[in-house]
């Protein structure tokens, strides 16, 4: 074996080793600690559903969710909890819309943690909603890649110091799939959800 070939081989092995160590370190860092965990309930004030392209905004007076979170340390972020029940009340002017939560259980996945401001970022997956107009013909499904896919994603943030979970209007993949809705919303348009929930009991969620 020539010295030049040997140097190339050693360099290549070192690069592979460094990449492997880096991947292992990244994987090790992606663990979570949750206290106390267990059953949780979340309640919000105004819950908003919007079609950003048409500008149509449907405001609901309140929303609630309940589910469970794992408890302990060294937990993987994927599937760390679930939303098993949810409801949304009094949507639109004088309750002109009904928004029904489907696709349950939704899955809770944690993705990053900012230790400075103690804020967790994550995603709810398996999200699906049904929208019905009570005063006129309007039927739509809010989902991810298709009306029956049950694969919608909503990004959220959670503050350890506040005990509040906020649904974010960016970072998700929700779309409207419309049967009829008088042009207020259009099939294929993106859909956004926004609300701020108070979690009870408040959780301390950190990583690593």
List keywords for this structure.
3-stranded antiparallel sheet, 208 residues, 12-stranded antiparallel sheet, mainly beta, disordered N terminus
Strand content: over 45%
Evaluate the radius of gyration: 22 Å
Mean pLDDT: 89
Q: How many extended strands?
A: 15
Decide which structural class fits the backbone. Answer: mainly beta
Low-confidence stretches: 1-29
Q: Helix tally?
A: 1
**What summary fits the major beta sheet?**
12 strands, antiparallel
Shape category: elongated
Order of helices and strands: HEEEEEEEEEEEEEEE
The span between the termini is 45 Å
What is the share of helical residues? 10-25%
Count of the domains = 2
Brief overview:
The protein has 208 residues and is mainly beta. Helix content is 13%, strand content 53%. The protein has two domains: 1-32; 35-201.
Explain the overall architecture:
This protein is mainly β and 208 residues long. 13% of the residues lie in helices and 53% in strands. It is built from one helix and 15 strands, in the order H-E-E-E-E-E-E-E-E-E-E-E-E-E-E-E. The chain has one helix at residues 3-29; strands at 31-35, 38-44, 47-50, 57-69, 72-76, 81-91, 97-102, 106-114, 119-133, 139-143, 152-159, 164-167, 175-180, 192-200, 204-206. Strand 3 and strand 4 (57-69) form a beta hairpin. Residues 1-29 have low confidence and may be disordered.
List the helices and strands and how they pair.
Layout: H1 3-29, E1 31-35, E2 38-44, E3 47-50, E4 57-69, E5 72-76, E6 81-91, E7 97-102, E8 106-114, E9 119-133, E10 139-143, E11 152-159, E12 164-167, E13 175-180, E14 192-200, E15 204-206
Antiparallel strand pairs: 1-5, 1-15, 2-4, 2-14, 3-4, 3-14, 4-6, 6-8, 7-9, 8-9, 9-10, 9-11, 10-13, 11-12, 12-14
């Amino acid at each position: 074996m020539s010295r030049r070939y040997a140097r190339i081989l050693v360099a290549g092995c070192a690069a592979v080793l460094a990449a492997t160590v880096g991947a292992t370190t990244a994987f090790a860092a992606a663990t979570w600690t949750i206290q106390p965990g267990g059953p949780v309930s979340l309640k919000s004030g105004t819950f908003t559903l919007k079609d950003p392209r048409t500008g149509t905004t449907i405001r609901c007076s309140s929303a609630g969710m309940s589910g469970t979170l794992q408890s302990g340390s060294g937990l993987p972020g994927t599937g760390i909890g679930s939303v098993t029940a949810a409801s949304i009340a009094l949507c639109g002017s004088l309750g002109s819309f009904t928004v029904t939560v489907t696709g349950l259980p939704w899955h809770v996945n944690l993705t990053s943690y900012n230790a400075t401001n103690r804020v967790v970022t994550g995603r709810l997956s398996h999200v699906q909603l049904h929208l019905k107009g009570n005063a006129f013909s309007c039927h739509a499904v809010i989902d991810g890649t298709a009306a029956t896919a049950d694969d919608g994603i909503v990004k959220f943030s959670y503050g350890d110091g506040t005990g509040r979970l906020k649904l974010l209007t960016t970072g998700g993949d929700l779309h409207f799939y419309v049967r009829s809705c008088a042009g207020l919303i259009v099939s294929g348009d993106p859909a956004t959800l926004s609300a701020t929930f108070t979690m009870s009991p408040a959780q301390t969620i950190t990583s690593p």
